[in-house]
Amino acid sequence: MYGPFKKPSLSLAAMLLASTAxxxxxxxxxxxxxxxxxxxxxxxxxxxxxxRAAATTVAQELAVYGTDVQxxxxxxxxxxxxxxxxxxxxxxxKGVNVGYSPDEGEYTxxxxxxxxxxxxxxxxxxxxxxxxxxxxxxxxxTIIDNHIIENIEVFRGxxxxxxxSNGGIGVVNVITKKPDGTVKGDFGVSYGSFNTRELWGNYSxxxxxxxxxxxxxxxxxxxxxxxxxxxxxxxxxxxxxxxGIQEYPLNKNNIxxxxxxxxxxxxxxxxxxxxxxxWFQDPFPSGESYSPNTLRYPIIDATLTHKSNDKLLIEASAxxxxxxxxxxxxxxxxxxxxxxxxxxxxATAAGVSTRTVPRGAWTGAxxxxxxxxxxxxxxxxxxxxxxxxxxxxxxxxxxxxxVVGGVQYVxxxxxSDARFAVPNNDTATTGVFIDVHPKLPFSPETGISLAxxxxxxxxxxxxxxxxxxxxxxxxxxxxxxxxxGTSYSLPQTNELFINNPRPPTAVxxxxxxxxxxxxxxPEETETYNAAFGYTHxxxxxxxxxxxxxxxxxxxxxxxxxxxRPLIVTxxxxxxxxxxxxxxxxxxxxxxxxxxxxxxxxxGEQWAFNxxxxxxxxxxxxxxxVGLQLSETPEWFATxxxxxxxxxxxxxxxxxxxxxxxxxxxxxxxxxxxxRAAGPDGRGADTGVPRYRKNFGNYTVVNAxxxxxxxxxxxxxxxxxxxxxxxxxxxxxxxxxxxxxxxAFNRGEYTNTDDRYxxxxxxxxxxxxxxxTYATKF
Length: 777
Known about the structure:
Elements: H1 11-33, E1 43-45, E2 52-54, H2 57-64, E3 69-73, H3 74-80, H4 85-92, E4 96-101, E5 106-111, E6 119-123, E7 126-127, E8 149-156, H5 160-163, E9 170-176, E10 184-192, E11 196-206, E12 213-224, H6 237-241, E13 250-264, E14 267-281, E15 292-307, E16 312-321, E17 324-327, E18 330-334, E19 341-348, E20 351-357, E21 362-368, H7 375-378, E22 382-398, E23 401-414, E24 427-438, E25 447-457, E26 462-474, E27 478-489, H8 493-497, E28 499-501, E29 512-515, E30 523-538, E31 541-555, E32 558-560, E33 566-569, E34 576-579, E35 582-584, E36 588-602, E37 606-621, E38 624-628, E39 635-644, E40 650-659, E41 663-669, E42 689-694, E43 698-709, E44 715-722, E45 730-737, H9 742-745, E46 757-763, E47 768-776
């Protein structure tokens, strides 16, 4: 049976975890006493508690040449106790707003006022951008395992030069732990509220005496019943009767293997293979009675680096990914016949009796949406295959000129079931880029970057994007930096070709719900980012302050016709049904904002950090500027307060997040005459959704208490409290309707009546508790 009705097998990951745990007892004493290995890269001071952190070559270069680079170490993620990646970045990374509902198992990462397609998340350089297969979205960032994170590198501003499309507002690059030729490892267990269980481990070891070849195996298990997501009182009545009120369990397995070959002092080769499987529920109060999902996500990647001398560095990388999704969606069958619906009862000795279900009532049956049913005949897989390769060379001509050049190839192929009848959407894009770093003889400390990239693709003829950056220190402790650039984002497959009907029967006349638009154009992004900063070290104390701003314009923003639907006629009943599709918005998405950050470290015991982001994101046409876009908070602030005892064994951390106004919109457009009816069948209206809800203005505080035991502090005991103040808040706000409601189907009101629509919160996690034990060896 296919994914959703077969929970993920834990045996393979459990066996792997057991293999990582067993060597710990034999190797713990030796490995703890061994000298720590030097990082593979130089260190760079970047934002996020200004401790020095090993950063990749790209991160170092971007920081030197004016990009806002923030590096969050794996140790900070570990100390936060975050269960999923969204929790980690939402509290540790400035300027991050998480989209959708992390506790449900679906989320995206958004930087500086952008949407889901403006921030590119990568895992060791492999893009996790959701290509949107025809079934529905695949949530790539959800596969990231917090326990294997070495660093999180965040690059703000246009960063498509090296990373390709969808980095228009920023890139979040997750660097994972890797073998280094020594014996080392981690093992941990956690238990907490909602019956949340975690088990994880990794083990690295050399394959030869010299340590030139080494291997790491790792795995993790996460299983939770999950907190309540929706208020049962807000469900459409027939959805509730058919089983829609339920728990939201989440199960996720990660396993992987990593290989290192130190070819010589100047050259190394790395290869990684990971496999993630997750199982989660996502029914909504107004629709599905039952909606389990299974996501399977394998990734293979490899890198080769060679530094022949002080002048030349060559880097090459390649990856393969093949995410697959199975999704079931069962909907209540509601009687829509005025005289009632005859329903057969169970057969008896006297024969088969029938009963009549009144109009508007649930018939006792559920039915699947197209491709969302049971087994191989009614449930279709959806996914894609993506492959990419990048070759990059950095050459230092002399003290006044450095040049970075390279080529990147990315191919995409839809891997969905043939019964979706998706037209050939295979694409291949080849990008050529050059980044020039001149030095000014009169100001050699000024970093300057001037770059251009041209992409050639099957999806378009060619596109040229550009990027600039500079950073200039002055008066010893001060600096000014700025960067800007352009990018683009291709339409997703589901936006182009989705065509998901529900069964057009006389009993349940749902008809089509959403259809694709194959004529969509890519989104175009132009962004600028600038800041003024101050750093000062005095004794064992360190202060950092930065004040910055950003400005972004997105044209051809891909939107939906929700509220201005097309009209499609049901072929069986003749009923006209509103249908949503996608279009390129003629308005420009203008995003303007400013940021502030203060970082203060006092000796070895105290560390403070606070980051503030204020952002306006709206659709504009000329001087006309619309309302703040949905699910984009107008402002928010994050902070961390850390205290460590003198013996460094006891640690206390507070992580508050304060969020200002955040709006959600829904329902049909407000009636008006500002838009004339067009040939697409859409009527005149204002284009402004009827309903608007402010679900922001809340404060959530997480806290951890950690004690490090053992001679080398290798044993970690942690107690974590989530939502310390037990704030009642919503992570997201949705708008549903009573299409399956009894009153609507009895004809008491129409689908334009206010009673037809309603809103509901995606509830934030209440106060909850977790305990963790972990050891390093």
